[in-house]
């Protein structure tokens, strides 16, 4: 799933390619992806892309109405979430063939006046990609309820401590809760917890001030590094760049590179769940003690 760094890069990519261009076509390939019906996707046609923004893991393209006729009308927002298996595929020259709704991965195509544009695609059978056309991004409920942006000035150690003390939960869950902290998912929470030298199952109210400060610094460090790595890359390169940058996530059985870049001599371990898994290093994060698989027994903290 694209997380904050990849979405931020996609937003920058669209800002450089799409802003200033006129929308000449919007074609729906998967009705299930469209979560709103008014305004319609076709209402974007003729408008000019004026902004590209990010809200957590959501992308937001602002499209102003045509200037002809006095320019009356509100700016519309194409707001979309790529979910676990979705992606944005840019083309400098889109096929002229119209999109036909069906079983293909193509969910939505946006055409621009220079022949370029992008497709939103989703692999697999579990279709969760979501597309909204609204006059205000806050009209999308998951956007309206997003928590603090972790790279914003509002995300201070004090703010993090308050979020952690509000209820006692596993720290991995808090980092992934979009209503608490926006933009972090399964992959980057694994990376943050390695750098913070923290068990994914540690309870939030067990953290002292030093541990909170360490977690805050790890969150900023991991995300800033990932954003810098992704910046300027074409959309087609972002997935591979993300995989290459992971220290523990997706690296079960490989040598741990160490929380500070010094190999610790241990290997990356995994805990599996019904439809996901997490990776961690016992030496760096749990005092050398492997975590129990939740499917088999109680979690160790």
3D structure, described in words:
This protein is an alpha+beta fold and about 300 residues long. It folds into 2 domains: about 5-145, Alpha-Beta Barrel (N-terminal domain of MutM-like DNA repair proteins); about 155-285, Helicase, Ruva Protein, domain 3 (Orthogonal Bundle). The protein is about 25% helix and about 20% strand. The chain has 8 helices and 10 strands. It has helices spanning about 5-15, 140-145, 155-165, 170-175, 185-195, 210-230, 240-245, 280-285, and strands at about 25-30, 50-55, 60-65, 75-80, 85-90, 105-110, 115-120, 130-135, 270, 275-280. The chain has a 4-stranded antiparallel sheet, with no helix packed on it. A hairpin with a 4-residue loop joins strand 9 (about 270) and strand 10. Helix 1 (about 5-15) packs parallel to helix 6 and helix 5 crosses helix 6. The protein is elongated and about 60 Å long. The two termini are about 25 Å apart. Mean pLDDT is about 95; it is low at about 295-300.
């Amino acid at each position: 799933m694209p997380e904050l760094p990849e979405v931020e890069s996609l937003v920058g990519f669209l800002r450089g390619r799409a802003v200033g261009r006129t929308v000449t076509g919007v074609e729906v390939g998967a009705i299930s992806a469209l979560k709103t019906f008014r305004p319609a996707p076709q209402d974007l046609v003729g408008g000019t892309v004026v902004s590209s923004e990010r809200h957590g893991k959501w992308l937001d393209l602002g499209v102003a109405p045509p200037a002809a006729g006095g320019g009356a009308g509100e700016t519309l927002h194409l707001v979309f979430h790529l979910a676990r298996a979705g992606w944005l595929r840019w083309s400098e020259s889109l096929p002229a063939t119209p999109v036909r709704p069906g079983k293909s991965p193509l969910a939505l195509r946006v055409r621009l006046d220079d022949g370029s544009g992008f497709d939103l695609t989703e692999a697999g059978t579990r279709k969760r990609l979501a597309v909204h056309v609204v006059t205000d991004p806050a009209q999308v409920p998951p956007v309206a309820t997003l928590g603090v942006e972790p790279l914003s000035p509002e995300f201070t150690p004090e703010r993090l401590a308050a979020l952690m003390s509000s209820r006692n939960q596993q720290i991995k869950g808090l980092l992934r809760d979009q209503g608490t902290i926006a933009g972090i998912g399964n992959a980057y929470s694994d990376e943050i917890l390695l750098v913070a030298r923290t068990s994914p199952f540690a309870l939030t109210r067990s953290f002292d001030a030093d541990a909170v400060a360490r977690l805050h610094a790890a969150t900023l460090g991991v995300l800033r590094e990932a954003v810098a790595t992704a910046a300027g890359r074409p959309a087609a390169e972002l997935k591979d760049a993300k995989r290459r940058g992971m220290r523990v996530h997706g690296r079960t059985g490989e040598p741990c590179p160490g929380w500070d870049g010094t190999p610790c001599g241990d290997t990356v371990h995994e805990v599996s769940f019904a439809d996901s898994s997490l990776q961690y290093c016992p030496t760096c994060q749990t005092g050398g003690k492997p975590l129990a698989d939740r499917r088999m027994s109680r979690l160790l903290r």
